[in-house]
Amino acid sequence: MSTILKIFVFPAALLVMCLGILTILGGHITPGGGFQGGAMIAGAFIFCAVVYGLKENPIHFSHNFMAAMESIGALTYVFLGIAGLIFSGFYLYNLGVDLNNLVPAFVQNIFDYPDPIHAGIIPYLNIMVGLKVLVGLSAVVIAFMQFNHKEDGENEENEH
pTM for this one? Predict the structure, then answer.
């Protein structure tokens, strides 16, 4: 890729990542949320991966990092659902906004998101979905890029 493109891509990717984080964190009061924000952050990573290649990519996601983030996202989502089940009898019950007066006050205070909307567990769910989408989309692109790179190496070996 050209030098001009490499100079432009990294700052643009950082800007897109910041917008993705903003979309995730504001997902409970604006259109968007975890999926859209995670896709934006993954798009920024993919943009860098395509321009720089996997080896020289300034935003490097190791296999262990991606596995940990995916596990944290999935397990936290499930645990929030189970917490709703334990304290209210309903899976993914919004513990911070207890409309049916089912949740004890100390649990409600833990999940009461500190803003005027009082969104409860919804922002936390958005963050977990964003992690899952970020890792999922990035992993697909990394797998395709590694597969293409391996095929190119095999073709060069067969030619010699």
Answer: 0.82
